[in-house]
Write a structure and sequence with these properties.
By secondary structure, chain A is an alpha+beta fold. Chain A is built from 16 helices and 38 strands. In chain A, strands 31, 32, 33, 34, 35, 36, 37 and 38 form an eight-stranded mixed sheet that branches. Chain A is elongated, with a radius of gyration of 31 Å. Chain A starts with 12 loop residues before the first helix and ends with a strand. At the A-B interface, helix 2, strand 15, helix 3, strand 19 and helix 6 of A face helix 2, strand 15, helix 3, strand 19 and helix 6 of B. Chains A, B: It comes from Diplocloster agilis.
Amino acid sequence: MEKRNLYLNNIPAEEAVEIYRKALKESVDVSYERIPVTEALNRVTRSAVYAKYCSPLYNSAAMDGVAVRADITNHASEREAVELVIGENCRLIDTGDPVRPPYNAVIMAEDLVETTDPDRFRILASAAPWQHVRPIGEDIVAGEMILPGGHRIRPVDIGVLLAGGILQVEVIRRPQVAVIPTGSEIIEPGREPREGEIIESNSRMFENLVTEQEGLPHRLPPVPDDYGLLRQTVLKAVREHDMVLVNAGSSAGTEDYTVHVLRELGQVIVHGVAVKPGKPVILAVVEGKPVIGLPGYPVSAFIGFQNFVIPVMDLYLDRDRQPAGCAEAVLSRRLISSLKYKEYVRVKMGKVDEKLIAAPLARGAGAAMSLVRADGFCIIGQNREGVEAGETVEVELFRSLSEIEHTVMVIGSHDLLLDVLADLMPSLHPHMFLSSTHVGSMGGLMALRRGEAHVAPVHLLDQKTGIYNISYLEELFHEPVLLVKGVKRIQGLIVKKGNPRNIKEIRDLPGLRYVNRQRGAGTRILFDYLLSENGLVPEEIEGYTYEASTHMAVAALVSSDGADAGMGIQSAAKAMDLDFLPIGAEEYDFALYPKSLELPHIQAFLDVLQSREFRMKLEELGGYDTSGIGEQILIHGLC
Amino acid sequence: MEKRNLYLNNIPAEEAVEIYRKALKESVDVSYERIPVTEALNRVTRSAVYAKYCSPLYNSAAMDGVAVRADITNHASEREAVELVIGENCRLIDTGDPVRPPYNAVIMAEDLVETTDPDRFRILASAAPWQHVRPIGEDIVAGEMILPGGHRIRPVDIGVLLAGGILQVEVIRRPQVAVIPTGSEIIEPGREPREGEIIESNSRMFENLVTEQEGLPHRLPPVPDDYGLLRQTVLKAVREHDMVLVNAGSSAGTEDYTVHVLRELGQVIVHGVAVKPGKPVILAVVEGKPVIGLPGYPVSAFIGFQNFVIPVMDLYLDRDRQPAGCAEAVLSRRLISSLKYKEYVRVKMGKVDEKLIAAPLARGAGAAMSLVRADGFCIIGQNREGVEAGETVEVELFRSLSEIEHTVMVIGSHDLLLDVLADLMPSLHPHMFLSSTHVGSMGGLMALRRGEAHVAPVHLLDQKTGIYNISYLEELFHEPVLLVKGVKRIQGLIVKKGNPRNIKEIRDLPGLRYVNRQRGAGTRILFDYLLSENGLVPEEIEGYTYEASTHMAVAALVSSDGADAGMGIQSAAKAMDLDFLPIGAEEYDFALYPKSLELPHIQAFLDVLQSREFRMKLEELGGYDTSGIGEQILIHGLC
């Protein structure tokens, strides 16, 4: 009687997977390919993708109406209408049209009072500069990160990538999985089976399971029970694919052949696992590639696939298997909503102090990037006037909860280095993420105090001492708070290429068009300080009230001729190919509570901050001094 | 100044969807196509699919070993070994091989004691008839329903369909969705945009959203702002597709064109909805087909798609949008599990008396149909010896909870009409389902009492009175219980085609091979009654202890020459092309608690039972008398 093969192992499933994945670690790796963005649905990015163009690409009308120079409307009122004449002091404009100099504001069609002359209108209120104008880069700024590495591409991402000028993207290659049915008694579907014959169907189940798991299946024709033929087929399949599944059929002795063939060709790591049904599984490595022998009974085959094939496919796909869903979260800020609408608010999510926090993002319909950045939708019913801060809301998640829970929530001053940190986090510390929201230094400290952020990046100049950040923390906090030193960065004036207005210092700004940063931004505080040092007042600066919310937005406005100068950092000027006049170095640090140091993702954040990879990226960007990065100063430590 | 279009409506999203779907109801319908099973992943079946072949197709070995006649082993014991000689009184057999007469049992290789002669073994214990034999049709019985209509095809279903001899399947056709980007200022990705130009990206987002939603997208080239051209493009698109999306771009006045074009070509049902962002949506009908105008801002476009395009695609796809997930359920029966294994138990789920119940299904690895029938997996950890009945377990769901909650749980005696009911339920009453488990009449009544079933189908003969079912209910229940009259069905002997053994009555059975039904089955009770009426005792019937659990399994065994005769219903004999000797009509009724009448799915069940469609299907099957169907008899009503 022929020798029967006994199962050597009875290893628990989890242990078997671990041993097997360890055995494959040396030889199995993620690989990448470049594909058109239009074909990238559900593929996973290799590395961060940065925008090539701004969106909008120019200052554009946000409404249908007329474009005007805001100053000519200054005195318009109910009692004293100002007359607008198309082609003379205004021009017709539709949503999306460029707003070009000398025009700098849009008046909505609804606010125009018609006259008997179709080219003449009257207005009864003044227009603020830049009203109803979407500034260049409002949605996407050239050079800005659109998607981080390791991101699964959704339909909305495809739209934003194309809008940002990206046509191709590098993504994780899908593993090619050969499926080999075996057994002399199996026949292909379509022929009437005779007694002793079995219709081969498992391989078709495997094909479709592989497809569902985002692999590329390749089913081979059934191999009869012939040792030499099986050996040859397996070897060929191993060489032409990333992994191989050998299915025993329900056949006689085939499984014995399989394990012997695999022992001859490579190494059998596990044979037999403590799973029922599904015990007779073979986990082998041949020429560095995984070859998995699955039992013939269909239920065992299915369970074997779930337990062992998917975790190996995960190695090729660098995949974390977490479904999204819904979650309840505490709203970080009050949301006012109209009773007229059911409103979809995009939110950023994070877990701070054991509470899941939902922080509303930009609400404009044009902000496609808000969809890309959002962790979910918070839907406010039409019958509600809004939601108070601190109320619990239901959020439809776009990312898995586990990912959200391992995300460092950074809220505060903007710097490009935050994009770099967000990109490096998951590659240096798998399953750890960073998300940042840009509200300026003071806004960030407020969010930190409210328990909405883990980390607040700050660059606040004490105008009395000339020392950065410390006195602000001392004053705003009454409990211990940590200042982790970040970078010294060169602040200066961003001006057009070649500096056509010949700007040399702050004193040259009156008479030119300036673009400012929003209230609370460190850059704005520095600018105020410099104005007063130079004996100037805000009223002398045209555009002092024209606020952009990021360095890149300032650079984009200067680049598009929306302004002659703005204050910002060197990397933003460099990214937009503009000139930069250094004014001085400022200190961009990170505030956080000492208790946060216990969190693994905060530890990962501090580690990435001091990593060689991060310093190298900053050197590439230019304009940073990283000496002393990561040093910690405890404030109110004795309270 | 050109005329601007004002939004006419500010309808709540839900209301807008309802109005629009109502307007489309006349002209939009589900259509079907026939495709190869191998390409049917994720497609939805039109109607029930019935198996062509049995699986296994013949009585087959469930183990490697030798095939023997059980009777020659009768006296084997530790003290008195029986010798087996290959080729003389046994033959070598491997798992899956046919077990042919005269052999009727398999002895495992492990139980064979080797001798010096490789062709001789000794055995130290007797073999029971049919031990380690998988009877024909154990997994799938020819003529049995494999999938109900409206079922979404999974990889495991593809395997079972092919194993059951099905090569093609009729499924719901996917809607073809044209996507038309519009606007003179938009350019295709790949060209450097100039001021005033916008890269067209929304249509690419739509394409991928349509794909994600299982439609077939067809993106058309951008249409400039030209009334006539837009009109012509929309009309052509409507004629060549199932639905059309017109995207405004961020363009000037385009939207005005769109609504005017749609008013000219058809009917604008809704223009403007109370959703923010996403107000300017147009819901129109042109030549009976849905044409949806979506706003140009990407966020509005995305939200418009979610709110309005998906519900219309649902009309074409006849789709209920419910994700599966996990659920906690009460285990209906004790499960013993080995500490040696992590065990995957397939369960049927249902909600009875506000409790979610998980009832374990067949545990064999060969039972592919148990995967198809299962509503989920209950995973028992390797460190557990089992789970008690009534304990709460976590179930990984294959079906949505909402579907499970609207399912009539039928447990009891088997009849093919249950498959017919299961197939008719969701087509006559959308979102109402029926699932049946076959444990015989008494088993069903026990399940009803334990609160595991809604309905127990019974055909239990009172041997004293000759009346069916009533006395059993009176005795087993002590509270009011309802008997809903079902069908009278002809029971008889199922014999081979042409009746080669010339069987005429029960008295002819001694000396022939009979296949019995399991204990508690109504057919078995009838058989026992007939035996005693004919002055016979069970010991005179060969195969009295050989139990099959369904009528079809009995028919399959007779068909495969596993037995000469078995008792069963005419439809089973007809399905397997066998002869049938009528013995008498029996009453197959349904027991349920009166309180269940409040459930909508029980109402649906009673309605289907009395429907014309159901009666017509039974006539096709033959062997049923449906007079009086649906009449209710209340038992213990006065308690």
